[in-house]
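Progress note, project year one: complex with adenosine-5'-diphosphate.
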Amino acid sequence: MQLTRELEDTNRGVVALYAELDEKADHLRRADEMKSRFLSNMSHEFRTPLSSIRALSKLLLDRIDGELTVEQEKQIGFILKQSESLSELVNDLLDLAKIEAGKIEVRPAHFDIDELFSALRGMLRPLLVGERVELVFEEPRGVHVMETDEAKVSQILRNFISNALKFTEAGEVRISAQLLEEERAVCFSVSDTGLGIAPENQQIVFEEFGQVENRLQKRVRGTGLGLPLCRKLALLLGGRIELESEVGRGSIFSVVLPLRYGQPAQPAAAEPAQ
Ligand code: ADP
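Model obtained:
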């Protein structure tokens, strides 16, 4: 009798605990939704004034060429640079908020990796002006066509490459694509001969706003949102990101993506079975 009552009490306790946990989870979900909505609305509100500031400063620099003093030109250049940084931050925040809210669409289609590489080469050329770093696109190995969201692959690779250029003073940045036959996946890698990242910081760089101290950090522009965004995009495409790095030698950022979106890659042979 006593035992039955005790069991009933415990049962009631467990039910109450579950109800409380459920309510808390619901509360957290709502708070998370509100955060995503807030970020998304704010980012939209920021975008329009920022693009006007950017467009008008560019116009001022182009139109009144020669009529501005050196100091005035410097100051408008500063406005332009700062508004470009803020735009990057707003775009990254908006993308993160969209992914978190499940509002980013994946548009899979067949595309040619060689063509993606030549488009990237064209887009990144302006970043190389005055750089002592060579950008090398290797011939894709074992694969030419894949089926996934090309724009998102391009976004991940642009992020990796612009980081590699930012944190490499001399040498080369090498981009490759290779078929991982057993996994039915493609591994894109961006390797650099730059500063490298210490083992204890290799997790931090994937956290939001996670930037690590190094001698170039103060000179380069950045939001600390690029890599977390890349990681979320890779997950969205059913893939993963890997990092190998050694201080003083350089880094290799890789993204492994299923050859065909929607067909999960086989687990890598080296990974223990789940
Ligand atoms: P951002 O580059 O905008 O600061 P990211 O999230 O892309 O933000 O990168 C976070 C940080 O990771 C960088 O600020 C830098 O400290 C480090 N990092 C990223 N890529 C590299 C790289 N190729 N070499 C060395 N450090 C890097």
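DSSP finds five helices and seven strands in the chain.
The mean pLDDT is 87.
No further modelling is planned for this target in the current period.
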